[in-house]
Amino acid sequence: MHSIPGRRVIMALFLIFLLLPIYWLVNMSFKTNSEIVSTMTLWPHAPTLQHYKRIFTDESWYSGYINSLEYVVLNTIISISVALPAAYAFSRYRFLGDKHLFFWLLSNRMAPAAVYALPFFNLYSAIGLFDTPWAVALAHCIFNVPLAVWILEGFVSGVPREIDETAFLDGYSFPRFFIKILIPLIASGIGVAAFFCFMFSWVELLLARTLTSVHAKPIAAIMTRTVSAAGMDWGLLAAAGVLTIIPGALVIWFVRNYIARGFALGRV
Amino acid sequence: MDKTVNQKAWFLVLPVFLVVAFSAVLPLMTVVNYSMQDTFGNNQFFWNGVGWFKELLDPSTDLGSRFLASLGRNLFFSLVILAIEVPLGIVIALSMPRHGWTVAACLVILALPLLIPWNVVGTIWQIFGRPDIGLLGYTLNAMGIEYNYVSNDIDAWVTVIVMDVWHWTSLVALLCYAGLKSIPEAYYQAAQIDGASRWAVFKAIQLPKMNRVLLIAVLLRFMDSFMIYTEPFVVTGGGPGNSTTFISIELVKIALGQFDLGKAAALSLVYNLIILIVCWVFYTVMTNAGVERKAQAEAEPAAERKPAGALQPAPALKPKEGVA
C-alpha cells in the first residue's frame, strides 16, 4: 500500500549509481600507475598496496588525517557544549528578541564560506591562531553552532515540560537538573547533533585550507597540493581519497538507527 | 504548551551568541569596511563610498557583467538541481525497503556520499568522467558519444549537475524517509478501507506528512547549491571559459586571486543579502506552517472531548500509533 511499483528496481539502480564512482576510486587506488594510464581494466589486474603504504609511512601525508580529525573533534565539542543551553532556552522560554536571534543564527548556517574566507584569514592571523586547529574549529562554528542549536531544540521540545517542573520541585538546582536529567533524556539528540557537526566540519575545505599553512593542514588540502607537484600520481590521489571516505563511513555505521530522524533535524 | 517569558534565558543563549558573533559579526564588519574603500597596495586605503556597489549592479562594467553572469548561472543551476533532486528524493524515499537488514544497508549507502569531503567528491567525478582513465568518460566515448567535460560547455554542465545529484539527492531522500516513517499505520489501513488509489494515498496522506521535511530539504538544497564552490572548482575549475563559474568561484577569484578587496567585499555583501532574503522567506513560511499545525493539533482533541463526556468513553478504540 505505501510503496510504489518497481521500488526494488529503482532502489537498486540508485544504489548502483551511488556506488559506481566510489568503486572506481577504490579500484584505482589498488592499481599501479602504469596500469591506470595504459589500460582500461574493471578491476586491478596487478593489485598493489604501494599507494596506501606510502601514505601511512610518509609523515607529510598521514599528519593531514590527524590534523583534520583534530579540528573536527574540537569543533564538535565546542558546538555541542555551547548549543545545549541555548537549545533549552529556545525550547522553554520566551525572551526579548528570541525569534530574531533564532533567525540570525539560522542565517549564519546559510552564509557562504567564500564570503568569510578572507576576513577569517585576517581575524585569525591578528589573534595569533592562524595555522592551528583552533582557528579551523572556531571558524566552522559559524555553520555548526546554529545547526546544533536547531537540531537540539527539536529534541528538547520533545521532552515534556512536566519533567523539568518535577525535578525543580524535588530540589534539583538548574545545573544539576541539566546534567543529571535533561542530558540523558536527549542523549540520542546529542548524538545526532554531534554527527552533523562532525559531518559538516569534515567535508568543508575552503575555510580549512585558507586558515592553515603548514602545521594544521587538513588531508583534503594536502591531497590537492602533493598531487599537482608530483605530476598527477593518480593511484596515490585515489588512495588518499578512499582514506577520507572511511571515517565518514564509520560514523554513519554508528548512528545508522538514528539517521532518518536525525536528518529531519528532530522535527518530524 | 505555552512558553513562559523569562529574560534570564539570555544567560543560556549568551555562549552561542558570543561564539557566533565572534565568527560572524567581526569578519562581516571587515567586509563592510573593505567594501567602501579602494586600495593601491601598500596597505593604503581610500574612501570609495558606494562606488563598488554601483559598479557591481551595472552590467556594462567588467565587475557587473561578471557578477550578473555568475548569478544567472548559479540561479539556473540551483533550479535545475532542485527540479531533479526533490522529485527523485521523494521517489527514492518511497522505494525504501520496509523491514529487515536491507533498511540499514540502504540508509548507510545513501548517507555515504554526504560524508565525503567536498573536494574528494570533486576528485571522484573528475576521475570518473575523464575520457582516458574514467569509467564514465571512457564508456560514453566508446559508445560513440563525444564526451569531454574539459573542453565542452554542455558536458561540463551535465557533469556538474550529475555530480550534485549524486552527492545530495540522498539528503532529500533521507529527510522524506523520516517524514514517511512518522505516518501511523492506521492512516494506510483507513485508506485501504476507503479503496483509495496509490496516487490518492500519496496525495492525501504521504505528501502532507512530508510537507515540513520537504521545506527543510528545499531550503538546505537551495542554500547549499547557491553557495557551491569546492566540487565544481575541482572538476572544471569554473571552465571551460567561464561556463561553470558560480558566484562563490567568482568571489574567490576576485578576493584571493586578484586581491581586489573592495570589489570582493561589495560582492560578498550583495551575495549575503540575497541569501538573507531567501532565508527569511523560508523561515516565515516554516514558522507559519508550524503555527497552523499547532492550531490544528489543539483543535482536534477539543472536538474529541465533547462527545466523550456526553456518551461513552471511546478512546480505547483509537489505534495505537507507530505499530509499524
Task: Give your account of this protein's structure.
The complex is a heterodimer of chains A (268) and B (324). Chain A contains 14 helices and 1 strand; from the N terminus they run ααααβαααααααααα. With 268 residues, chain A is mostly helical. Chain A folds into 2 domains: 1-48, no CATH class; 55-263, MetI-like (MetI-like fold, Orthogonal Bundle), CATH 1.10.3720.10. Chain A is globular. With 324 residues, chain B is mostly helical. Chain B folds into 2 domains: 22-56 and 261-289, no CATH class; 74-258, MetI-like (MetI-like fold, Orthogonal Bundle), CATH 1.10.3720.10. Chain B contains 12 helices and 3 strands, in the order βαββααααααααααα. In chain B, β2 and β3 (45-47) form a beta hairpin. In chain B, α3 packs across α7 (153-181) and α3 packs antiparallel against α9 (198-226). Chain B is globular and about 75 Å long. Chains A and B meet through α1, α4, β1, α5 and α6 of A and β1, α1, α3, α4 and α5 of B. β1 (93-94) of chain A pairs parallel with β1 (4-5) of chain B, so a sheet runs across the interface.
Care to give the gist of this entry?
The complex is a heterodimer of chains A (268) and B (324). By secondary structure, chain A is mainly alpha-helical. Chain A has 2 domains: 1-48, no CATH class; 55-263, MetI-like (MetI-like fold, Orthogonal Bundle).
Which percent range fits the helix content of chain B? over 70%
CA-based shape of chain A = globular
List the chains of the largest interface with their residue counts.
Answer: A-B, 100 and 104 residues
What's the number of extended β-strand segments of chain A?
1
Query: What is the CATH architecture annotation of the largest domain in chain B?
Result: Orthogonal Bundle
Q: In CATH terms, what is the fold-level topology of the largest domain in chain A?
A: MetI-like fold
Distance between the termini of chain B: 28 Å
Task: Quickly name the level 1 CATH class of the largest domain in chain B.
Answer: Mainly Alpha
Structural class of the secondary structure composition of chain B?
A: mainly alpha
Instruction: Assign the CATH architecture of the largest domain in chain A.
Output: Orthogonal Bundle
CATH H-level superfamily title of the largest domain in chain A: MetI-like
Q: What's the order of the H and E elements of chain B? A: EHEEHHHHHHHHHHH
Helix content of chain A: over 70%
The rounded distance between the terminal residues' Cα atoms of chain A is 21 Å
- The number of helical elements of chain B comes to 12
